[in-house]
Amino acid sequence: MSSPHLSAHQPHHPHQPHPQGAPFGHHPHPGGAPAPPPVPKRPATVAVLLLTGLLAAVSAVSGAVAVLAGGRATAEANVEDILGGELTDGQIDGFTELLIDERQTQLAGQAAILLIFALPLLLFTLLSLKAAVWARVLVTIAAAITLIVTLAVAGDDPPGVLRACVTVAALACLATLVVCWLPPNNRYARDVKAARRIRR
Questions:
Q1: Residue whose C-alpha is closest to residue 64's, from 188, 174, 149
Q2: What tens digit of pLDDT does each residue of 53-66 get?
């Protein structure tokens, strides 16, 4: 038999209904606001995009810098390769000097064009870490133009170091164009945009 004295001191806990709309076991954020959404996980394809874009840009820039640093010596060696033999001092006449000067000007122009398009590709690739559509559009345009430029340079009998650099850059540009629009990147861009909208 229970004592009335004990019953009077027992606290009464009425059943409190679970907040409407909140799943069982979910604790709402203090103040009634919903908990912030989790940060979307960056897929591996974004890292591959970053790698291929940077490789293309750095390779093109490296080739351009090597040609500009080599100057006339690079142009002379390139003319020797084109003519199929080493030029001695006695063989370098006025016509050969003209060929070397013209080739040096051509190589300097090719290097400048590579820099003009490879440097923006480098910048746009770094801006594509969130896989935003606008950033990937810029990467696509820059990679496509850089690909065309590198193929044109490769087809013009460039010096060995420049040939190697533009070949690597062209292959990396092709990979960049493929990876840029893979489905995981598209999903990641949508998830990042949705999470940003919820936080606002």
A1: 149
A2: 999 999 999 999 99
Residues 72 and 69: their CA atoms lie apart, in Å, by 9
Record the tokens describing residue 21, joined without a space.
């709309």
103 φ/ψ angles, rounded to the nearest 5 degrees: -70, -40
Cα-atom radius of gyration of the chain, to the nearest Å? 32
58: Cβ contacts below 8 Å, ≥ 6 apart: 122
- pTM given for the model: 0.74
Q: Which residues are within 8 A (CB) of 150 and not within 5 positions of it... i.e. 6 or more apart?
A: 60, 114, 166, 167, 169, 170, 173
Residue 151 has pLDDT above 90, yes or no: yes
8 Å CB contact between 64 and 169: no
Q: Find, among 172, 171, 159, 173, the residue nearest to 64 by Cα.
A: 159
> Under DSSP, is residue 53 helix (H, G, I), strand (E, B) or coil?
helix
